[in-house]
């Protein structure tokens, strides 16, 4: 489990994404989930089939003291994903 830089395939086009594979501990959940933040994408992908290509691991999943702390870390993760060409 952890946070990864991925390529997500949407309609045959690859886009960069930051993907969390884990249990979302900041929100007190314990069911395994895969969540993708597609960089520079605006749209609704719910219910659509996509493909993920895992490129590299950024960090382990961890519990943050607040949602705001998690948001700050996601911004850092996105910046790291943008830099890893």
User: N-to-C SSE series?
Assistant: EEEEH
Shape: globular
Which stretches of 5+ consecutive residues score pLDDT under 50? none
Q: How would you write the strand order of the largest sheet? A: 3-2-1-4
Structural class: alpha+beta
How many H/I helices?
A: 1
- Average predicted local confidence, pLDDT: 94
User: Which band does the percent of strand residues land in?
Assistant: 35-45%
Termini Cα gap? 23 Å
Largest sheet: 4 strands, antiparallel
Spatial extent as radius of gyration? 13 Å
How many runs of DSSP E, i.e. beta strands? 4
Percent range of helical residues: 10-25%
Describe the protein's architecture and organization.
This protein has 85 residues and is α+β, with helices and mostly antiparallel strands. The protein has one helix at 67-83, and strands spanning 2-10, 13-22, 33-38, 51-59. A 4-stranded antiparallel sheet has the order 3-2-1-4, covered by helices on one side. The two termini are 23 Å apart. The model has no long low-confidence stretch (mean pLDDT 94).
What is this structure's SSE topology?
Blueprint: E1 2-10, E2 13-22, E3 33-38, E4 51-59, H1 67-83
Antiparallel strand pairs: 1-2, 1-4, 2-3
Which key phrases capture this entry?
alpha+beta, four-stranded antiparallel β-sheet
Could you write a compact summary of the structure shown?
The protein is of the alpha+beta class. Helices cover 20% and strands 40% of the residues. The two termini are 23 Å apart.
